[in-house]
Amino acid sequence: xxxxxxxxxxxxxxxxxxxxxxxxxxxxxxxxxxxxxxxxxxxxxxxxxxxxxxxxxxxxxxxxxxxxxxxxxxxxxxxxxxxxxxxxxxxxxxxxxxxxxxxxxxxxxxxxxxxxxxxxxxxxxxxxxxxxxxxxxxxxxxxxxxxxxxxxxxxxxxxxxxxxxxxxxxxxxxxxxxxxxxxxxxxxxxxxxxxxxxxxxxxxxxxxxxxxxxxxxxxxxxxxxxxxxxxxxxxxxxxxxxxxxxxxxxxxxxxxxxxxxxxxxxxxxxxxxxxxxxxxxxxxxxxxxxxxxxxxxxxxxxxxxxxxxxxxxxxxxxxxxxxxxxxxxxxxxxxxxxxxxxxxxxxxxxxxxxxxxxxxxxxxxxxxxxxxxxxxxxxxxxxxxxxxxxxxxxxxxxxxxxxxxxxxxxxxxxxxxxxxxxxxxxxxxxxxxxxxxxxxxxxxxxxxxxxxxxxxxxxxxxxxxxxxxxxxxxxxxxxxxxxxxxxxxxxxxxxxxxxxxxxxxxxxxxxxxxxxxxxxxxxxxxxxxxxxxxxxxxxxxxxxxxxxxxxxxxxxxxxxxxxxxxxxxxxxxxxxxxxxxxxxxxxxxxxxxxxxxxxxxxxxxxxxxxxxxxxxxxxxxxxxxxxx
Amino acid sequence: xxxxxxxxxxxxxxxxxxxxxxxxxxxxxxxxxxxxxxxxxxxxxxxxxxxxxxxxxxxxxxxxxxxxxxxxxxxxxxxxxxxxxxxxxxxxxxxxxxxxxxxxxxxxxxxxxxxxxxxxxxxxxxxxxxxxxxxxxxxxxxxxxxxxxxxxxxxxxxxxxxxxxxxxxxxxxxxxxxxxxxxxxxxxxxxxxxxxxxxxxxxxxxxxxxxxxxxxxxxxxxxxxxxxxxxxxxxxxxxxxxxxxxxxxxxxxxx
Lengths: 628, 255
Hints:
Shape of chain A: elongated
Strand content of chain B: 25-35%
Number of strands of chain B: 10
Structural class of chain A: alpha+beta
Oligomer: heterodimer
Number of helices of chain A: 18
CATH architecture of the domain at 56-79 and 106-249 in chain B: 3-Layer(aba) Sandwich
Largest sheet of chain A: 11 strands, mixed
Helix content of chain A: 40-55%
């Protein structure tokens, strides 16, 4: 116990003493700091146990508060992606989740020749005359057509047995629509900027071109069948005989040919070549003219046509490795609006004049793929220079690689098509009106605002946040109360052990108030020690939580495409949901520290009050009782 | 207060008193009763005590266990109040005094010495003496100096910074005596002060109390079982079953 320390404390208490005072205005110590200090120091075990109880409580509360704050931070980051980039509304066209089953996996045997090549069926997005446009089935058909390019005959990539690397770009879950819609949206009043964008799923496939065909030759067989011809009437027979006779006289001179017996009538194949083999007369058409129509078909033969059929024997995926990533096309003319903005650049620059060959790369994707500014990415044997790294906002449209819009349209064979329009509104109050106008202008469009996006976000982050807000707060209160209770009980027990000591103090002239204050001074000291240890515990707990960083998923049913491939659970999904994985952080804010400190001190004072209450009830005479 | 110049015809003087000093008595007890009620059973610890004690006396309260001497000491020490009767201490009636007033009287006018010493185990000898002065208004430095001085006076000048656990029983009781004297009380009340000491040390403690009575003029009231100790007092008051059965002066108090 340092004397200077003591005198400093005395100075602090002296000012308090002035307030307390007695009627005479004398200077009296409110509490004996030296006594309290000695109690804490020399009853170290009790001090440390009680302090640790408080510290643990305070530390856990800090952890709980930290998690809650971390969740709030994460949620805020997720829920405010639109406003932060100057976009108020996103217009897309998605498949209604109800029809997802009909469009999920589609494998067509027999390859489509080459890439699908931009068949934007289903009547197009806003094409006139598409009655029943809103029907989900037509949306699904459109999406299927959009994605059909992925079902590709791999033999177009090379000879069987050769290695191939190819990137297939497909629209994923958003349906493309003509870029003219962007202009339509831009014309709506109160819209300041409307920028089109195209987000695509990219499948990067490497492997060996499989021998996928076998040639089978069919047809060439001759089929024959004898059919009994109908019996000729007498008149027919006479007519036919006369005709033949006349013919013979003309050609052979008087030779008579009798009408044959029953002929055969061949069945005419729908596409087969016909060969008439008239017995006895060859294909003498003159002779045939003498016959009745029924007898003309007599004794026909049918030859099945020869054809060669190539069939896929093995599925194209057999020897291929597929990885997915996401790409997007942004309009380089709008550096301040759209999927990504200039302000999101973390290094490098925005697109330059040669923007067609330039890309911006998501910072997270760049770090996993070891990409840097000045490097390049190769898509289908063409190099694109990385001019900058960007940190796009979490939800909504996060892609790995950002091309310019024309480049992506070219890669995806989707010239003139976009799959989303990002709209800025002059005033946030007008967002509702503009949303309605867009819905009217583009019937069936999915129009998302920050508000609707927030409503559509769900998943474990949301659940955890609700849990933290509800159960977490309750838990924090319970933990703190438990710590307070433990401290109070320990103090009560300490007071019970000090009955004679307290009685003696009362006997030698300590007032009830002084004894209570003295005990509270001691527990205040314990509270301070507990606060200091508790801060350490709390900071430690928060650091551990942040280090472990449990992943929490966020599911957004609003925007379907474009989640970075870094996030788990993204695939070709037509249900229009995006799942992101957010790592939990438990920050320690200054307010939390203050709260924790206050908590421990309040706990100490409460314990002191409990102990003091007990001590005040002790009769001074208890000092004289034989307790030995 | 050590002057004894009042009229000998004071009506409060006890009838039994043979060698009554002059002046205002320190204590005047009239028909004092103290009944403890616990669980519906009443225990009559004191059944009507009439007693007058004079300043500067050294009085031994004697009697077997349960005779009421501890209860009487509590009343004399302003630790407890009688259920009936009156106690007048230094001109003030105690029986209706508030806890605040009693606390102040204990602090400023009464010193206590206990059988079990009752030192604060976490405080040094000097701090234990000082702690009694904490409620007083004197400057801290003066209090600390006085504590050292008192310890020197009781022969513990060399052990001021020792914790009670490092002191012998006799030494601890000396610290307690120093503490009792800290606020210059009118009376020191000692409850079996030698009860936890061997007879030689006990006698030394009694000698010390007697010496302090002489030098500081303080009244000493002690309860004891010990005949030998009792003989050291100049007045012996014997209790039995809550009644005062004997009150006599010891003419040859000390050698």
